[in-house]
Structure formats: C-alpha cells, structure tokens
Amino acid sequence: MKNFFFYLATTLSIVFLFGCGTSKSSYEIYDGPPPPPIGQNATVEERFLDTLVVAAPRTAPQEEEESVSYVLPIYRASHARINNLVHTTLDLRFDWSSQKVIGKATLVLEPFFYPTDSLMLDAKGFTLKSVQLEKKETTTPLEYTYTGQQIDIQLDATYTKGQKYTIVIDYEVIPSSSGGSEAIRSNQGLFFINPTGEDPDKPQQIWTQGETNWNSRWFPTIDHPNERMSQDIFLTVEDRFLTLSNGNMIGSVKNTDGTRTDQWKMEQSHAPYLSMIAVGEFAVVKDQWRDLPLYYYVDPAFESSAKGIFSNTPEMLEFFSSKLDYPFPWEKYAQIVVKDFVSGAMENTSAVVFGDFVQKTNRELIDNHNEDIVSHELSHHWFGDLVTCESWANLTMNEAFATYSEYLWFEHAYGVDEADYHLLADWNNYFNEASLNTHPLIHFEYENNEDMFDRHSYQKGGAVLHMLRNYVGDEAFWASLNHYLKINEYQSVEAHDLRLAFEAITGKDLNWFFNQWFFDEGHPILDITYGYDEEGKQATVTVKQTQDPKEVVPVFEFPVAIDIYFSESDKRREKVWVSQREQVFTFDAPSQPKLVNFDGDRMLLTEREENKSEEEYAFQFEHAPKFMDRYEALLTVAQSESTLTEGLLRKAIKDPFWVIRAIAVDYLDMETADANLVQELNKIASADQHSQVRALALEKLYGSQAPNISATAKTIMQQDSAFIVIGMALQILAEEAPEEALPYAEQYQNEKGNSMKTVVGGVFAANPDKKYFPYFKENIGSIDGPEAIAFATHFQQLAVGLSMDEVTEAASILESNGLDLDDSLWRRAASAKALVDLRNGLLEKAAEVKELMKQEAYQTQAAAVEAQAKKVIENETDPQLTELYQQFKF
Predict the structure, then answer these.
(1) Torsion of CA 301, 306, 310, 315, to 10 degrees
(2) Edge to edge, what strands does the sheet with 248-254 contain?
(3) Burial, 112: exposed, middle or buried (Cβ in 10 Å; 0-12, 13-18, 19+)?
(4) Which of 143, 606, 635, 802 lies deepest, with the highest CB count within 10 Å?
(5) Mean pLDDT over residues 562-590, rounded?
(6) Among the listed residues 436, 457, 430, 466, the one whose alpha carbon sits nearest the alpha carbon of residue 518
(7) Taking each helix axis from N to C terminus, what angle separates 658-667 and 645-652, rounded to the nearest 10 degrees?
(8) CA pair distance 123, 146, nearest whole angstrom
(9) Do residues 272 and 223 lie in contact, with contact meaning Cβ atoms separated by under 8 Å?
(10) How far apart are the first and last CA of the chain?
(11) Of 843, 839, 847, 845, which is closest to residue 873 (Cα–Cα)?
(12) How many distinct helices (H) and strands (E) make up the chain?
C-alpha cells in the first residue's frame, strides 16, 4: 500500500499558513526535500556525551525507583491458525439504493494441525440468513453464535488435519465504518460511490479496500495476513457496468433481467485482505508483457492517457522479474483508478486500486509522473502478495521492500542520482517522524493495526534494506532475495525468514544487523570531526554517537567507507567498523587531505554534523561522486554566501542532475547577475531537459526584472509542452500584462489537467468578470489534491470581486463541498479555507468602502459566510482536518 495521506497534514498546514495567490503559489516548482541534517549547517540537538563502553547494553538502564511495578510488554502475536482456509467462493449482488451487499459465501476449510469441531469466522455487521455444512451437494444447518463481529460455528463432527469440509453462508451486509487512520481513512471495507447516481460529476462505482482486517465487512473469512486461500468470485451487476477482481475472468453471462454475471477465478493462494472487487463504467486499455495480459482501468476521459498514467509498467515487470530471477507470479496484472479512494493505492493481488489523483493528462505527466507509486504497488506482488507478512507487527516485510523498490526502479530507469534523491526524501520523512516518536521496525507494541502504516515501516524499512544491500554487495543482495522468495513463496514470513535467507546465501551471521535495525529502534546521530597531524603525517576521523541513550540504542555498529582525497586524481578509500560511543580512526597521510569524506557510499541512515570548511565542501561538490555529496556541499556553500558561492552556483547550473541544477538556479543572486548569466538562464528556461528547471529559470528571470520578460513568456507558452512551464509563463504574463494574459488563459481553459485549471483560475480571479464564474462552478467539484486548495482560493477571490449574488452562490457551493464527508480531504479542506478567506475578503471590502450601507452589506454577508465556515469546521470528523482547522481565527 502506498499511503497518499502521510504528508497531508504537513502540506495543508503550509498552504494554510502561506495561502495561495494568483502567482507562483499555484505551482510547487522545486518539490524536493528540505536540506537534510547531514551538513555542518544542520540543526542537531546538543546532547551530553556520557561515557559508555562498547559492551553497553542495547538500551541504557533506567534508574530504579523504590516502588516499581513490573509487567510484561505488549506483544501482538500472529493469529493462531486453528482452521486453514483453502478456498473461497463468493456469489455477490448489490442493492445500490441501500448500499447493501447480498452474498453467498462457500468456504472450503480443514484443520491446520490439531483436530477441531468448531470454526471461527470474521464477519463484521452481517445479517446472517443461514449457516450450513455442504456435503455431496446437500446442506445441513449448523449451530452458531454471532457477536456482530465473529461467527462461532459448531461443526457436525471433529475434523482432523487433511480432512476438508465446506461451509455455506447466505448473508446480507451494509458495510459501515468504525473509524479510520492517517494511512487508511476509513475501515468500511466496501464502498458505494454515488450509489443513487444523483451526483452528475461523479460516476457510480463499487470498490473495496481490505487492508488491514476489513474485507470481513463484505464477506465472511479468516481475516488475518497469515491466512491464504484461492477464490472464485461471481459478480452480478447491471450490464452497463464493468467488473474487476483478482485472477482472470473465466466467464460472463447476460441475465434476463438486464444484469450480467462475471466470474473471476484466482487459482493461486493469497491472503484474504488482498481480495478485491470493483464495479463501474471504466475505459479499459490493454497492454502486454511477455505472455501476461495487462489492463489499465481509468475514467473514460483519461483513456488516451492510460498508458502514461501507468507508464513503464511492462518495463517494470521486466526489470523486477529479471533482477529477482523470479518472473511475475500471477495470472494477469490490472491497475484501476477509482473515485474517493481512502488511501493512496492498494496492492490487491493482480488488481491494484489507485486513487484518482494519479489520473493526469499526458502533458501533466511530463511534470509529474506516477512511477514511484506504480513501481511500489507492482513490487508488492512479490513482497506482500507472494510472500506476506505474518502479522501487522511485521508489516515492514511488505512495505520496506515496496518502498525500496521505488529506489531500485529509479536507479535502473533514471540513474543513481535520481534514486539517491528519492532516498534522501525517504530519510527526511523518517527523521521527521523519529523526532517525535521511534519504535522498532518489527513492532509488537502498537496500539492499533493501522499505526504500523508509518514512516518507520515504509521509509526507514527501505533505508535499512539499502544498507543491507551495501553491506552484502549487489550480487549477494539479488541472490538472497531470489532465495527468500523461492523458499517462502505463497507463505507468510517474519523478519527472521529474511535474515536466514541472506545468511544462507552470504554465509555471514547477520544477527547484529537485524537486531539493531529491525528489532531495536532509532538511528545513530553522529558528530564527526576531521583532523590532520602535520608532524605525524596522519589524518584522523573522530566519530561520536550522540543519540540519547535513554531513548534509543546507545551504540550502533556499522561498517562504513571513508574516502580520503589528496588531489583531484589521488583518492584512497579506507573501510572501518564503527562500534563505540566515541571512536578515533587514524590514517597515514603524506600531506593534508583536500577532503576526508565519511560514508563515501552515502548509504548510512544517520543524522550527522561535521566540521568541514567551505573550501572542503567546494572540493566535495566537484570531486565526490554521489548526488548527496553535491547536494550537501551546494546547499552549505550557497547558504553561507561566501566568496565561493557564486562560482559554485555557476558550475552547478550545468550539473548533469536536474535537482542540483534546480537548487543552483534557485540560489542565484540576480542582483549581481551579468549579461552572460542572464543569457544562460534564458537558455535554461527554453532548453533544459527537465521542466521544473525550465520553470525555475523562467521565474528567476522574472524576479530579476529581465528585459522583454512578457515576450519571453509568450514565446515559451508557444514552444513548451509542459504545463508547469506554461503555467509559470502564464502567471508571469498575468502579472506583467493582465489583459494580454486573458486570451492565453481562455485558450487553456478546456485543458483537463488540474494544474493548468488552477493557473487559468488564478488569471480569471485577477480579472473578475461574471463570465468566468461558470468555469469555477464546472471545475470546483473535480479538482483534487493540492490544486483543490489553490482553485478554491481563486474561486472566492473571483466571487468577492463580483456582486453579492455571486458571493452567495460561491459560499453555498463551498459549504456544500465542505460538508460532504464522502468527498476528499483535499476538497473539504479547500472549501473550509476558501470560506474563511471569503469572509475575510468581505470584511476587507467593508473597510475599504465609505458608504455606510455598503459597509453594512459587506459585514452582513461576511457574518453569513462566517456561519457557513463554522458549520463546515464543526461538521468535520477527520482528525487531521480538525487539527488543521484550529489555525482559523474568527
């Protein structure tokens, strides 16, 4: 699963604090992570370096108090398997008006090991019509008790291992939610979207989301990740709808009542939470990899973009299958986009569900492709679906691999710089979470299953796999993964299974690595000091571990490479093992090194502070090979504003990697720019290979008051194909020559891309005219993601510049969207913020006018909008939004 809402609270709070105007705020040009805490300018909490010996316990002892209560720690055990679920057959119909599932479930089971005369099934909120035993095509009612959550069935006899029996359950259920989490906003399991068809802007759909234990809201099962089953699912729907489920469709029959029954068969076993169904009117684009059929289900409006939305799926299948030496194990691969999905995406076996934020036009995909999330969900089909975590405490056995697979794909497709940039973002996301809370990757003490979907399980887990790869080497890494998959295929696993697989291939004892990184918590925080003894001709590297010993591991151990540079062509690598709280490494050095670079591979998950000079950082930028070396050095020198800054920035704008070029452009001081630099920026704005760099250069030219900027903007709009660049040019033209910008905005108003709609909306809002009001009414309900906030802001800006009638109508639309708890978080947040802004805009209008009657009219209207805003805020149930709404002041 890819959790789209991990960063929602942070993103929205930034938007709320700084607002969205008609200019640059509509685009996030450089969307990279903030400077990581790895350079000398990093802010690192000072800690007292108490004296600890290497033999210190993994967790520092706490001082005992006189009265101590000793209790066992919480341990979330894997589900005890009493019965083995062999096969599930579902026959499902749907009552759209009541949002009801009408089902018949036929379950084939057998005792797991011990004899048993009972069966416990998970079934949440069901109305049970019958529970029967089926033998030789005859059925016998069974006694059972039902708690509303589980069915405790008394079997007709005691069954022994290998003795199969079949249970048939007729039921109805209206799936309902008992809550949600940051990762998965609702645990309803099965969702009816626009069930009565009343919303003309939203299609009718049914889709499911089973992780963690929520598929038992729509069919009875043993709803735990260490269970496995094959399945047949019969779906009876109106003939106009398409269906999708796991496995292959092996039959489709039209019925006399205008419905159709599709049969989907899954012969291989997988965990119950990975079962899925989807129903709706989709465009289906077919593709192929080797002999495997591929299907892309999208909204009909995005049919022409479908292969771009799921770009490089065949190439990813080839890459992962080849590198793992284990071909894609399932019968087909489908990817489907649904409305109002409650997370980012979900790796249901052979049928991945995505939220509709991935739907973009081909031109939008130039700026913002989906390859991270597409590769993430695809890789789960080995790590998560084929080999599944045995409990949610072991979730990182699924998610660490899927997260690291993003790195592996970027490395393969775009080079190691792109992959390391992605890893840097993962590090920072983990560090941000770890500053507030740490826990082991294998975490048995969680409060709720959903708590495991955090930046530890995902980002830290991926970073740990990166370190493991570095330690054992590439050949051993891939061979170990192949061995791990083959010996554990179609089974559930825990972390020790991975360790044993790596040990079997490498011959190394890896307990030290797994104990430290999987079963303990935290990461090293290092203070690194470089020195040189001229008389003794020795270079020294002093490494102090400063992490709080009362909170996390006092002493981490790890191998690391130290690169020593004596000149541009003379470099020596020393490999050392850090294993003490404070450790000094000494190396022979005939002259003072130009640079000593700790962790030359840039693989270590650590926060660090170093005593490098600006000259050393400048040398590092030009000669150390890794992206993170250049990134760290460039940011440090650029922020120092030293005599080295300008020269380094001018070199950096020609760097082969776009992120470095983007940072360099962003830091250029245009007040001191000469004609050559302006000419270079013009060249970058029109010809750089990356759209974000082109857009940044154009913005920089505008900020420098470059001559003929309006003409440049017009030329770029005519030549460039990327919306992010066109959008920047249009915004510049709107600020420089508003009347000239309007025809261009009107030219682009029919573009389907959300980002372009937002820029066009900004131009219209800056030129208030009633004729633009329908544009906002038409699009306000369909724009999602961060653009929803900018677009709603522009809507209220336009309305406040028109008549009271438009203000009233705009406020009504925003209120309706904000009150709709089935709508996306983004649109609800956008509506609430826009109402608050609209109220404030009306009060500003009241302060500007002199006529008393107009003042009172604006004040009255502001009071009405304030009441609507408060209604939306008070109606909100999502904890992330309710927390964010506390920023609003009335």
Answers:
(1) -170
(2) 138-141, 126-135, 165-173, 100-111, 83-95, 229-238, 259-270, 248-254
(3) middle
(4) 606
(5) 97
(6) 457
(7) 140
(8) 9
(9) yes
(10) 39
(11) 839
(12) 27, 29
Q: Is the peptide bond before 877 cis (omega within 30 degrees of 0)?
A: no
pLDDT, mean over the chain: 91
Instruction: Return the pLDDT at 738.
Output: 84
Which distant-in-sequence residues (6+ apart) come within 8 Å of 73 by Cβ?
A: 444, 445
Confidence class for position 50, pLDDT limits 50, 70, 90: very low
DSSP SS3 for 792: helix
- Residue 388 CA to residue 228 CA, distance in Å, equals 10
Picking from 664, 649, 602, the residue whose alpha carbon sits closest to that of residue 628 is 602
Which tokens go with 303?
Answer: 């049919």
Whether residue 31 is predicted with pLDDT greater than 70 in this model: the reply is: no
Q: Give the other-Cβ count within 10 Å of 669's Cβ.
A: 13
CA 113, chain centre distance (Å): 40
- Per-residue pLDDT band for 201 (boundaries 50, 70, 90) equals confident
Measured at the alpha carbon of residue 402, what is the angle toward residues 398 and 403, in degrees to the nearest 5? 115
CA distance 705 to 877: 47
- What local confidence, expressed as pLDDT, does residue 755 receive? 83
pLDDT tens, 1-27?
Answer: 875 333 343 344 333 333 333 333 333
Q: How far apart are CA 215 and CA 287, in angstroms?
A: 29
The single-letter code of the amino acid at 492 is S
Residue 12 has what pLDDT?
41
Burial label for 53, CB within 10 Å (0-12, 13-18, 19+), is exposed
- DSSP labels for 131-149? EEEEETTEEEE--EEE-SS
Q: Where is 590: in which H helix or E strand?
A: none
pLDDT for position 499:
98
Q: Name every residue whose Cβ is closer than 8 Å to that of residue 867 and which is 6 or more positions away in sequence.
A: none
Query: What are the angstrom distances between the C-alpha of 508 and each of 511, 513, 575?
Result: 9, 11, 18
* Residue 244: both structure tokens together: 């999708």
Task: State the average pLDDT over residues 681-700.
Answer: 95
Identify whether the C-beta of residue 405 lies closer than 8 Å to the C-beta of residue 320: yes
In 10 A of CB 752, how many CB atoms? 17
φ, ψ at 186 (rounded to 5°): -145, 140
Length of the chain: 890
Q: What is the pLDDT of residues 146-164, one digit of tens each?
A: 999 999 999 999 999 999 9
CA distances, 732 to each of 28, 759, 764 (Å): 15, 11, 14
- The arithmetic mean of pLDDT across residues 488-502, rounded, is 98
Report the distance separating Cα 239 and Cα 252, nearest Å: 10
Question: 810 — phi, psi (to 5°)?
Answer: -60, -45
Is pLDDT at 603 greater than 80 in this prediction? yes
Q: In sequence order, what are the residues at sequence separation of 6 or more whose Cβ sits closer than 8 angstroms to the Cβ of residue 293?
A: 286, 287, 332, 333
Contact 220, 153 (CB under 8 A): no
With a CB cutoff of 8 Å and minimum separation 6, the contacts of 609 are: 37, 40, 42, 44, 526, 527, 528
> Residue 281 above 70 pLDDT?
yes
Interatomic CA distance for residues 649 and 644, integer angstroms: 9
Ranges of beta strands (E only) in 410-521 are: 491-493
In three-state secondary structure terms, 322 is helix
Q: What is the DSSP letter of 44?
A: -
Q: Is 68 left (phi over 0), alpha (psi -120 to 50) or beta?
A: beta
pLDDT higher than threshold 90 for residue 249: yes
Q: What does the pLDDT average to over 118-123?
A: 98
Residue 63 pLDDT class (50, 70, 90 cuts): low
Integer CA distances (angstroms), 42 to 30, 35, 38, 152, 311, in order: 20, 8, 6, 58, 37
- Would the pLDDT of 84 be above 70? yes
Handedness of CA 802, 805, 809, 815 (dihedral sign): positive
